[in-house]
Batch of 4 targets.
Target 1
Amino acid sequence: MTNAAPEPTPAAAPPAIQRASPHQPRLVLRLITVVAIALSLFQLYAAGVQPLGLFFQRPIHLGFILVLCFLIFPVTGPDRPRGALGWAIDAPLILCGVLVGFWVPWNIDAIANAVFPRPIDVAVGIVTTLVVLEAARRAVGLGMTIIGALFILYAFAGSRGELPWLADWMPGILNHRGYSVERLASQLTLGAEGIFGIPLGVAATFVFIFVLFGAFLEATGAGKFFIDLAYAATGRQRGGPAKAAVIASAGMGSISGSAIANVVTTGAFTIPLMKKLGYRPAQAGGIEAAASTGGQIMPPLMGAGAFLMSEFTRVPYVDIVLVSIFPAFLYFGAVYLLVHIAAVKQGMTGMSADELPRVRQVLAEGWHFLLPLVVLTWLLVAGYSPMRVGFYAIVSILVAAAARALWTFFSGAPTAAGLGHLALRGLRLTLDALELGARNAVAVSMACAVAGIIVGVVGLTGLGLKFSAMMIAFSGGNIVLALLLVLLASLVLGMGLPVTAAYIVLIILVGPALTEDFGIPLLIAHLVVFWYSQDSNVTPPVALAGFAGAAIAGSKPMETSMQAWKFAKGLYLIPLFMVFNEVIILGGPLPLLLWNGAIAILALVAFAAVLEGFLFAPMPLWQRAVLLPAILGVFWPAIWAEAAGATVILAILLLNRHAARPGDARKIGASA
C-alpha cells in the first residue's frame, strides 16, 4: 500500500435544501417549503409554548406529514414530471392528508361520546389507513406497505372476518376469530392503540423535535466543526482519517438519526482521505458504514430509539441514555481498535501537522456548537421532559449562533448594510433548518404510522402471544437460539424497513417472549432488539449503509458490505454480553460492575485480535484458536468461566506483546 499524502480536510457546507428540480415546478417547491416550515413551527409551539393532547397533536402531525409526503414524492416517481394524470392522483391524496389532520381534533367530542362508531368516522378511518399505506410506500419503501397490508389481511382472516377463507392458509396457532372492516377501522383510527398510538406519538413529539435539533446543528455548520475536531484529535496517528471517521460519526450519527445520512455526510470527507492514506476503497467505505451505524446507538439522542424505548418500558429517557453510554463506548472502541490494527498491519503513517486543523483553532471557531449539547445534557439530568429539552436546545442553538455572528460582525468594520445582510442570512438559515427538519421527519413518521397499524392488529388478534409461543417452540427454550432467531428476524425485516420500524415490529412480536419466557429484564430486551435492528445497515446481502459507503468509495457494494460487517462485529457481541452480564445495564455492587466492564473490554480486544490475526504483532493460528473459547468463557454467565476466560486472554495477549519487536512495539504504543 502506498502512503500518499492526503489532502487537507475540505470545509463542510451546510446541507442544501432542494430549490429547483427538472420535475418539480417552482410553485410546488415553494408549497413544500411553506408546509414544512408550518409543520416545524407547529411542533415548536406544541413542544415549548402550549402542549397539546394526544388526539390533537398526533392527527395534526400526521396530516402535515401526509401532505408533505405527497408533495415531495410524486406518484410518477422522482425521474418523471407529475403531469395531469399524476396530479389527478396526488391532489385527492393531498386533500385526504388534510382530512386526516382535521377530522379527529374537530370531532373529538362526538367520537368520544358515541356508543358505537359513527359510519362517517369509520369511512374516514378507512381513508386514513389507505393513505398512510400509500404514503409509506413512497417515503419508506414498498416493504413497509406490504407488511402493513399483510397485518390488515391477517385481521380479516377468520370465521367472523371479512376474509374467512384466508384462515385455511394459516397454521392452527395463528388462527383467530377474524374482524370486520368497521371493527378494524375503529381499532386503527379511533383510539390510542392503532395509527395514533405510541409509535406515532413518539414520532410526533420527541423524535421530531430532536430531528429538528439536528437540522439546526447541520444548517449552522456543526458538521464541519465535529469533523474538523475529529481530524485535529486523531490525524497524526496511524490511519488518522479512519479514526477521525469513527469519532466524527459518533458525534454526528445520533444527531442525524440515520446511518445512511451519516455515511454520505461525514463519508464525503473521510472516505477519500482514507483511500489516499492507503486503505483499500472497500475498506474505507466499510469503516465509514460501521462507524456511522454506531451513531444510532450513541447517546444522547440514539436516533429515535431511546424515545421509543422510554415510552415502551416506562423508564425515564435520561436513564436509558445513561445505561447506553458504556455499551456505545464498547462498540466504538472495538471499531477504533480494528481500524488501528488495520493501519499498523499495512504500515500506514499519520498526516502531517500542516495538513491538519489545530484543536485550539477549531474550538475557537466553533465552540458555540458545544453549548446546545451542554444545555441538552443539563436539562435532561435536571428532569425536564424530552420535548421541552429539545425545544430549549433549539433555542440555545439560535442564541449561540446569533451571538457568534454578532461578535464576528462587530469585531470587524460594522455597517448598517452589513447588519441587514447578516440578519437576512440568519433568517434564511433558520428557514432552511425548519424546512430540513420537517423533510427529514417524513420517513420516520410514516414508518411509525404503519407501525401503529401493526400494533393495532397485534393487540386486536393476540398475535404477540402466539408469536412468542412459536419462538419458544423453535428455540427449544434455549436463550442463545432465541437470540439468534431475533437476529435473523431483524436482518430479514431490515431488508425492507428502516431501523426504527424494524425495532418496533420486532419488540412487539418477540418482546413478550424475551421477558416473560426467557427471563431477560425488560430494558435489556429492548436494548438487544434495538441493537440487532441496526444490522441491516452493515450485514450483506442488504447493507444499506455499506452500499452508501461503496458509492462514495467507488468500490464493489458487496465487498464494501463485507468490510462493514467485519468492523461492526460489536453490534452482535455487545448485546449478548448485556444479556449474560445484566449488571452493566441494571447496575449492582461497584466491584462487580468494574469486573464486568473490564472483562467486556478484554473480550472485545481479544475478538479484534482474532479477527485481524494481529495486535502487537502477527498472531499465530494456535493463539487465535485458543482465544476463541476464552472469549466464550468471558460471555458465560458464571464467575469461574469469566475468570478462566479472562486469564487465558491476558496470557495470550501478553505473549503477543512479548513477540513484538521492541522497536515496533514502541511505535505501536506511540501511535495508539
Note: The chain has 30 helices and no strands.
Target 2
Amino acid sequence: MTRHRSSAAQAERLRKYRPDIQGLRAVAIMMVVSMHCGILDIHGGVDVSFVLSGFLIGSQLLAEIDKTGKVSLTKFWARRFRRLAPPMALTIVGTAAIAWLYASPLKFRDFVADGLSASLSFLNWRLVENGTDYFANDGTQSPYQHFWSLGIEEQFYLVAPIVLVALVWLSRKIVRNRALVGVALLAVIAGSFYMGWSQTPVNQPLAYFSTHTRIWEITSGVLLALLAPFVSRMNTTVAALVSWLGLGTILVTSLLITAETPLPGYAVAGPVLGALLVIAGGCANPGFGAERVLFNPVFNFIGNVSYGWYLWHWPILVMWPHIVDREFTFQERMRVVVLSFLIATAMHYLVERRFKNNVQLVARPWKGVLAGGFTTAGTAGAMVLAAIVPLNLATAPASARPAPGFTSTASVEKAVHQRKLSARVQSTLLKATENHASKGCIDNTEITKFVMRDGCVIGDRGSKKTVVLLGDSHAWQWNDLYDELGRELHVKVVTMAKGGCSPQIYHIASPTLGREYRECDSWRDSAFAELKKLKPDVLIIADRARQEATRDGAEAAFKVFEKTGARLVYMTDTPQPGQNVPDCLATHTDDITPCNRKQWQALEYTEFRAMERKVAEEHGAEIIDTTPAFCSLDVCPSVIGDQLVYYDNSHITSGYSKSLKPFLKPTLEGILSDA
C-alpha cells in the first residue's frame, strides 16, 4: 500500500501537461519579440526555448521508450510535421511575397535563397557561411534570419529519436540502467558548450549559428527529462524555491546581456540554467512555485500563439521600414509587435490547430509524414521559382563608352535636382557590389602586419617618383583613380590600406571583432616602418572620420609622417550616405531623392574632421577637400551624371572615383612638380 501511494504521488507530480512550461514558453517569446523590436534590451529568449524543446521532446521520447522499448519514427516525425511545417511554409511564402512587393529588387534573390534554406532547415549553416553578424543593424538583415534557431531544432528532431533509442539500448546492455545515457548527454553538453565558448572570439557567426555549438542547450533539456523521475521527489518547499530562483535567474541574466556581450560565449548559460531550474522545480509540482505567476490565461494564450508570433514578428520587423517608407520610430516598432501578434493569432486558429488535430493525419501518421514532405518540397519549389522571376529593373543597351559622372561642380549641382533613375544606372545596380576598387591592395581585419607585395604597387611601376596612399578602406576606394593618375603622371603609387584601421594613432573598437582592434595597432606600426624604408616623394593620408579620433593621436601620426621627408597630402573623408545606396535606388527608381542625404548628415563627426584637418595643416600637409566633388546645395546625391556614387552604405564606386580625374589631377600634378 505504501509503495502504491508513493507511485501515485510521483505520478501526480510528473504531470503530462505543465502549465509552468506553457507560461515559460510565453516568457521566452515575449523576451525575443521585445529584444528584436527594441522594446526592452533583454536577451536569452531563444536559449530558454531551446531548453523547453529539449525537455518536452526528451520527455516524450523517453516515455515512449519506457512503454514500448522503441520509438515510432513515423509517429514522431508526423507530429513534428503537423506542428511545424504548415505555419512555416505559410510564413516563408508570405515573406517572399512581401519582399517582392516592398524590398529592394537587389536583395530579393538573396532573400529567396535564404527562404529556400529555411524551408530545408539549414539556414543556420548558410548564415555561418555568409559570416552573418546577428546584431548588425545596418539594413543587411534577412527577413528569414530568425529561422536559424528553427533549423537547429529541426535538425535535432531528425536525429534525436534515433540517437536516444540507441543510447538507451546500449546503456541497458552495458550497465542495465540509463546511467550511460546520462553520461553521453553530459559529454554532448560539455563538448558543445566548450566549442561555443571557444569559438565566440574566433568565429562569432560559427559560434552563434552552428548546430554543434548550440546543441548543448537542447541537450540540457533532454538530460533534465531523463532525471525528471528523480527530480520530482524533491521536497516541495525546496522545489518552489528552485523554480523561483530559476525565473529570477532568467530575468536577471537576460537583462545583463547586451549587444556588446560576446555571444553565445558563456553568457547564454544564465538563461539556460534559469530555464532548467524553473522546469526542475515544477517537476515536483510545488504549490507555491513560479507556476503561480506563469500559469494565467494571458500567458496561456501567448504560449499557444508563440510559434506563429516567432515566425512572423521578424519578417514584418525587417520589412516594415520598406512598407511604410518612413522613419522607424518606437511607435512603428510597437505596431510591428501588435500586427505580428494578430497574424500569429489568426494562424494559430486557421492553420496550426487544423493540422494538429486533423483526424486523418493523427490516425495515419504516414500521411502526416507525406504531407510534411510535400509541404516542404512545395515551399522549396516556390523559392526556386521565385529566384528566377525577372526583377523589376530597367535595362539599357551596353555601351563601350564609360558613363558620364563628375565633369565639374556644376554636374553635382545638377544631380541634386535629378528625380528619375535612368535605365543606364538601373542596369548597373545588380552588379553594383562589384563596382569597387580593383587595383592596389587592402589587408583584412585579421592581418597584423603590412607586407609589401606586387599588388600594392600601381600606376607607373617603373617610375623613380613614389606616391604612397595610406589609410583604411576609405583610402583604398581611391585606388583605381590613383592607378590611372599614376600612369598618366608617370609616378609609382604604393597603396597601404587596412580595413577599419586609421593610419592615425587611435585605439579603435572593432564591431566585427567585438573588442579593441589590436590588429590595427600592430599593422600600423609595421606600415610606419615600411614608410621609413620607402622614403616616398608624396604621402597621401585618407581615412574614415571616426569618433575615436583624438588630437594626441593625430599629432603623433603626423610627426611620424613628417619624418619620412615626403610632401604630405591630407584628403578629407567622403560623405556617408547612411544607407545601402543601390538598394535604395532600386526601390525608388521614379524618385531617387530619398536616396540622397543632407550634407550636414553625410559629413558625420564634423568636429573630428575639423580637428584632423587642422592638425594636418599645422604639419604642412596640402589639403584636398573632397566635399565639392560629392555635395552641392547642402545635398550629397547618390547618382551624379550616370554614375552610381556609392556601391554600399559607405564606399564610393570605382566608376565614380575614376570620373573624378579632372577634379584631382591638377592638384596632384602641382604637388608632384614641387615634390
Note: Residues 1-9 have pLDDT under 50 and may be disordered.
Target 3
Amino acid sequence: MTTTIVFDPLIPWPLFLMVAVIVCIGILLALVRGLSGWHLRGLAGLVVLAALSGPSVQQEDRAPLSDIVLMIEDESASQRLSDRADQTSSAADTLAAQIDARPNTELRRITVQDGEGDAGTELMSALTEALAEEPRARISGIVALTDGRVHDADLPIDLPAPFHVLLSGKAADWDRRLRVIGAPAFAIIGEPVILTLRIDDLGAAPADEPVAALDISIDGDEAQTFRVPIGQDLELPVTLPHGGRNVIRFSLPEAEGELTDRNNSAVIQMNGVRDRLRVLLVSGEPHAGGRTWRNLLKSDSSVDLVHFTILRPPEKQDGVPVSELSLIAFPTRELFMEKIDDFDLIIFDRYKRRGILPSLYLENIAQYVRSGGAVLVSAGPDFASADSLFRTPLGAVLPATPTARVIEQPYLPLVSDLGSRHPVTAGLPQNGEWGRWLRQIDVTTTSGNVVMTGVEERPLLILDRVEEGRVALLASDHAWLWNRGYEGGGPQLELLRRLAHWMMGEPELEEEALTATAIGQTMRIERRTLSEEVPPLTITGPDGTVTELPLSPAAPGRFETTFTGPEIGLYRLENGDQFSVIGLGPAAPREFVETIADAVALEPVISAMRGGVVRLEDGLPSVRNVRAGRPAAGRGWIGFTPRAAYQTRDVRQTPILPGWLVLLLSAGLIIAAWLREGRR
C-alpha cells in the first residue's frame, strides 16, 4: 500500500493563480491600512486557496513487476564461420542461466537469421520489433551475442536500458577478400576494357604474402592464373570474346588459416557490343530491288557500309574511256585481299562472273568464310547461268547447287517447319497474308537449313555454317516486292534485318543457345534449338549441388523453365552441348564482405546507454545492478538497471479539506477578523 498527497484543482491553474494574486493583494492592502485582523484575513484566504487546489490523500494498492532482459542471438551466415556458432550458443546458455537466477528478472531470447535476399544481418530491426512487444518501463538491459557484422546498425532507435555486445570470434582471425571496385556494364567486342580489382587481407593476417594467385575465366572456360599484389588497386584490361552477356569470374585459392573462401571470388556480367558493323555490299548490276539492301543497311546507324556496284561491265563496248566514267579507281585489291577480314558481312546482290573480281579474290572470300566471316548471296537469274557465282571458288562454301532453271510465276513465300523454330524466321510479323513474289531460282540443297520455301516447297532461304563462318542463300531477287507493298507486302525489313544480324553472330539470333535471366534469386532459363525435343537441364550450384529440371515447350524451337537458387553465387547450366553460366546476386553475399568480428558499427548504440563490449574468448562477464545514468560496464562485468516497475491494482482518494470544514474555517477566521477590528 502506497500513500501520496495529490492535488486536483477545482478551477484551472491559471484562474487559480489569479485568485491567489487577488488574495495576496487584499492582505497587503489590509496590512498597509493597519487593520489589526490582516493576519486572520490572510489565513481565511489561504483556507480558500487550499480548498480550491483540491488536496486529497491517494492510496494505491501496487503489485511489483519483474524486470525484463532482452538477449539477442545472432545466427546469421557470418556467425557460422570458424567456431563462432558453438561459442555463441554456449555463452548464451550460460548467460541465460545467470539471468534466470537473478531475483525479479525475466529473460526474452531473440534469434536473428539472415535477412531476406542479400539484406545481411538485421539485428537492430529485430531489436526494434522486440521492444515494441514489451513495456519499456520494465526493460532493464539488452545483450547482443554477435560478431558485430550488423547491416542495419544505422537504424535510429531509442533504447530504454543499457546495451551490451558479447563479441564472438577471435582476435587472431584473418581473412582474404577480393572486390571489384569498378566495372562497366558494356564493353566493345575486341577492345580491352579496364576493370579495377582489389585484394585485401583483413584482421591478423600473416605478413609474409605480398602477392596472391588470381584466376580469371570467361563464361566458364579454363581459367588463367596471374600473380597480383595484395592491398593495392589493380587495373586489369579484359577483352570480351563475343557479343551479348559475358560472365567473367575472378577467384582466389583459399589461403591456409583464413576464415572463409566465400569472399575470394567475384562475378561480373558484361554485355559485349560491336563498335561498328562493317558490311561490304557487292551489286552485280542495277535492278528494281537494287537499293533494298543499301537502304536497309544505311538505316542502321551502327553499320559502316561499303557499296561496290558494277555499273558498266567490261564486255560493254561503247567507246567511252574508263577515265571519263569514274572519278577514282575502286580499290578492289585492297578490299578483297588486304582488308577483307575487317568486314563482318559480305553481301552479293545478283552478282555474276564478269572478270572484275578474279578467282583469286573469290577464293580469298571463301577462306574468309571458313575463318569466321559471313557471306550472303541474294540470287537472281544469273545464279542459274554459266556465269553463276556458284561456278567460282566461292561455290565450295555455298549451301545449294543451281539447277539452271529460273521459275517465273507468282508464289507465296512460306516459313518452313524448321524455319518456325529458327530465330531468323520464327514469329515474323504477319498482317493477313503476305504478298507474292514473282521469281525463284531453282536450287538443290547440299547442306544447311531451309527456313523458307517457295514454289512447290522448293528451297527459298537456306542458312548454313561453314567451319567457323556462316553462309546464307536467298534464291530470289524479289524481296523488294514486300517493301513496295505488292499485294499487301510483307515483313521484308524485319526478315533482312534478322538475316544480316544472324550472319554477324548476334547472340539473340543463335538457333542453338542456352540463356538465363535472373530476377532476385529466381532465374528464367530459355533453350533455343532446331530440335523438337531437348534433354533435362542440369544446374550446378555454387556449392557443387547438381539439380536436374525438365524444360517445357514455350514456342516452336523454344523451351523454358524457372529455378530459384537456394543461395547467392555462380550457377552453371548445361543442356546437351550447350553451356551457360549466370550469377545470382553478388559472388560474395553481404554476410561475407566483412568477416572479422568487430563492434565498431554498434559503438554509437552502445555508448548512448553507457554499455560495453566483451569478447567471448576472454570469458563470460558477470552481471551487476547499476543505477540509471551510471556506467553500465567494466572489466569482466556488465550491468542492468533495476526498473522497480509495478502494476496498480486499486486506487482510493480521500479529500483533506471537505466542504463543511472549509466553510467553517473560512467563516470563523473572517468573523474573528471582523470582531478584532471592531473592538479596536
Note: Residues 395 and 504 are 20 Å apart (CA to CA).
Target 4
Amino acid sequence: MIPRIHQQGSNTLGLLHYLYGKGTHEEHVDPHLVASFDDMAPDPGRDPSVTKKDLQHLLDQPLALLGPGQRPDKHVWHCSVRAAPDDPILSDEQWAEIARRMVAATGIDPGDGAGCRWAAVRHAEDHIHIIATLVREDGRRPDHHRSGKRAQAEARLIEAAYNLHHVAAGDGTAAKRPTSAERHKADRHNRQHTPREELRETVRRSVAGAASEEEFFDRLAAAGLLIRRRIAPSGDTLGYTVALPDDRNGKGEPVFYSGSKLAPDLSLPRIRERWTQTSEGTTHQPALPPVTGPASARRRATTAAWQALLVIDHGDDGAIAAQIAATGEVLDALAKTSAAHTRHELQAAATSFERASRSHIRAARGHDRALRQAARDLVHSGPALGRGEDSATTAMAIDMLFFLITATAHWHARRQHAQQAETAHRVAEHLRVAYQAAAEQPIGVLHQRGRRLAPSLQRHYSAVVRQALPDLAEQILAEPGWPALAATLTETQTVGHDPTALLTKAAAQREVDTAERISDVLVWRLRRMADLPADPQNAQSQQSQGRPAVSSPEQVAQNWAKSTNGSQRRR
C-alpha cells in the first residue's frame, strides 16, 4: 500500500471537482465518499441534492475562526492511498477504516475531538483520496510534520492487518517519482514513460564509464538531449539541466530538469565525485592489456566484478557503496552494447538497479576504478554480436554479475535497506533470464561435446568431481549441465592444467551450492581461470593467443588412454 502526500493547495473546490469528476481519461468510476471527519459529511457523488460546493463549505468552515491575516495561504491537504496491483479489492468499509488510520497517524485528525475536517473519496477500486483543511476545530494548525513518513509507517501496519502486499520501507534516497500531471501528460502524448523517467535513463547511461565532464556532456548531446549549463563568472560549470526536444510546456518551451531533480546522484557535484581520484586505501594497479573488442571488454568486466565481490565480502561500507554504485554503470554499459536477444532483460536489470545503487552510506570514490574502467571499456568496444565469443563472454559476465548483485542484496538487507535489497533481488531475476539467452548456444555446444566423450573419460571426470568437491559431487553429476562441465574439464587438461586442482580452486573462490546451476557456474569459472575461449567453437581465438587448439572428444580419449597406458608401463 502506497500513501502519497501531495503538494498543499489553496483551492478546496478545485480539488473536489477533480475527485468527483470523470478524470482526464474517463478513469474515475462512481466517485463517492467513504468516510469523513464526523461521518456525516454530504456526498455529492451519490446524493443528487448535494453539490461539491456544499462539501467545500463544510470542510472550510474552520477557516472562519481565523482573521484574514491568520489564514494559511495553502490550507488544502491532499493524500492518496493506493493498494498494490495484486491486492484484493477492498470494500468501502475497509477503505473508510484505512482513511481514519491515515488521518490519525499523520496528525490531521489525531482523535482528540478537535482535529481537522477531512473527507475520503473513492473513485476507483484500488485507491482513495483524502482531502483536509489544515485548520483544526479549535483554530490551531495541526501537527502534521513529516506526515509522509508517518503515513508510510502506518501503511506498513495496515498491510499486515489486512494481509496486503508488503511494500519495503524507503529511506529517502529514491529518485523522485513523476507527478500526476507528468503521468497524465505522458498518457496524452502516448509516451510509455514520462519525460522525467526518460531523461533519468539517458543521463544515467551517459555517465556510465565517462572519464570526464566534457565526455559526459558530449554523450548527452549525442543522445539528442537539449542541455543548459549554469556557468559561474569564472567560466566553471556549476550545474546543468536537460530536456527532451519534443517535451514542451503550454508556451511551447522545452521543459528542463536539473540532474538533482532526476535522481539524487545525478547532480553535477555528485557526478564529479566519480572522477575523483583517491589514493587512500587503494593500491597501484598494474597496466592492463588494451581491450580489443566486445569480447575482451566482457572478460575485463567479469574480472572487475570478481574483484568487487571481494570488496563486498571484506571491505568497509564506503568502499562497498562505491562498488555497488559502479556496478550500476557496468549494467548500463553492458545493456547498451549487448545483442538484441539479451538487451531487453539487461536494460530492465540496469533500470531496476538504479534504486539499489544508492543508500545513506556515501560511496568512497576511487575504490571503484576497476568497475568504472570496465564500464568504459564496454562502451568504447562497441556493440557485441549475438553469437560466437561476444555472446559467450556476455554469458560469462552475466554469470559473475549475478553473484555480485546477490551479494549486494545481502549487504543491503544486513543494513536494513529494505527497498534496495528487494530491488537487487528483482535485478537478479532479470539477469537470470538474460543469462539463459546468452548461454544457450555455448553451453549447448559444450553439452554435446561432453555427451560424446568416451565412457572411460566420463568416468574419469566424474572421479575428478568427486575428489575435488565431495560434498557437491552427486548434485553436480545429476544436473543437466554436467556434460558441459565434463567437456570444459577436458579442455583445461588439454591446455596443461590439472583439472582436479583447478576445479578445487574454482569452487573455493566463492560458494556455489546456492547457485541454480552449479555446473554452469563452474564452467565459466574454469574457462576464465584457464583462459579458455568463452565460445567453445572459437578455436581461432585459441591459436591467435598462442594456445593449442582444443582437441576433439575422440582425440582427448586417445591422448588420455596413451598417457594412462604409459604410466602403467612405467609402474
Note: The first helix runs from residue 12 to 19.
